[in-house]
Amino acid sequence: MAGPDRFVFLQGLLTNDVSRLTSDTSLYSLLLTPQGKHFFDLFLVAVGDEWWVEGDRYRLEELKKKLSLYKLRSNVSLDIDLDQHIFSLWGADVVAAFDLNDRIPGHTQHTPLWHVYRDPRHPALGARMIVAADHVAGLSHCEGLTMVEADEYRYYRYGLGVPESDAELLVDKSIPLENGMDELNAIDWQKGCYMGQELTSRTRYRGLVRKRLFPVTVNATVNVETKIVAGENEVGTWRSLCRERGLALIRLEALDKELTCGSAKVTVVQPNWMVLPEA
């Protein structure tokens, strides 16, 4: 994204304060529907005179079309670049290895080979790296980096309870505060209006959250189409599962009950970043 009106344009659409986006600080944010439901979760990185907006690769055309609807006369250009590859980096030494400040979420460093930034959502997620396609092969020669399959990242991320993309944040259905988007630095409560802001704020201030997306574990194979129950009462639904770890939307009133899914016992874990309403 480029153009002199890009700040005003995005500031009126996204849940985070776009004024905090600089060449040194990247952001995580949401694009909601007018009804305050999830549409896209996005990472924003300032690269030179452009703002790079990362979203689900197979939905980029849909994102461009949606943003174009709101562009009107704004002097903003929108282009899709499929030449960039995104890597997630985690481990004890990632922040130090790439000279990132461990006290600044989203702290960003740029080099001729890549753009790397601390994941703005949670410190344990490490860093994210943007690499041009013709430089990807060189990553395998970087000391200390081990290339793994995407499922290894999913498994790690599920242990932290962090959702992403429309597989776990359901389009036009998910409510941001049920998915921890407040604690994961996707929402700025001090900024002005944005699309879906009224309903999001009302949910927060009226305490209307009755369910949360939790990391869970199971002790047997389960079908994610099967509901999670407490006794005979349905109390949860699956969003995703990788081996024995997954993410599930659970009613808060059921947290002190024994939960099952089919023949499997479901154990709910409250991650240290998650703030639940007082009983």
Please, how many helices?
6
Distance from first to last alpha carbon: 45 Å
Q: Could you tell me the radius of gyration in angstroms? A: 19 Å
CATH C-level category of the largest domain: Alpha Beta
Instruction: Work out the strand percent.
Output: 25-35%
Reading the helices and strands in chain order gives: HEEEHEHEEEHHHEEEEEE
Main beta-sheet strand count, sense and barrel state: 6 strands, antiparallel
**3D shape:** globular
Helical fraction equals 10-25%
CATH fold descriptor of the largest domain: Gyrase A, domain 2
Strand order of the largest sheet: 9-10-11-8-13-12
Oligomeric state of the chains in view:
single chain
Q: Which architecture of the largest domain per CATH?
A: 2-Layer Sandwich
The CATH homologous superfamily of the largest domain corresponds to: Probable tRNA modification gtpase trme, domain 1
Uncertain spans, ≥5 residues at pLDDT below 50? none
Count of spatially separate domains: 2
Mean pLDDT: 95
Q: What is the number of strand segments?
A: 13
What does this structure look like?
- The chain is of the alpha+beta class and 279 residues long.
- The protein has 2 domains: 6-166, Probable tRNA modification gtpase trme, domain 1 (Gyrase A, domain 2), CATH 3.30.1360; 210-279, Elongation Factor Tu (Ef-tu), domain 3 (Beta Barrel).
- Helices cover 16% and strands 28% of the residues.
- The chain has helices spanning 6-11, 60-71, 94-97, 150-160, 165-168, 197-205, and strands at 27-32, 38-47, 50-54, 84-89, 108-110, 114-118, 127-132, 211-218, 228-230, 233-242, 245-251, 259-261, 264-268.
- It has a 6-stranded antiparallel β-sheet, covered by helices on one side.
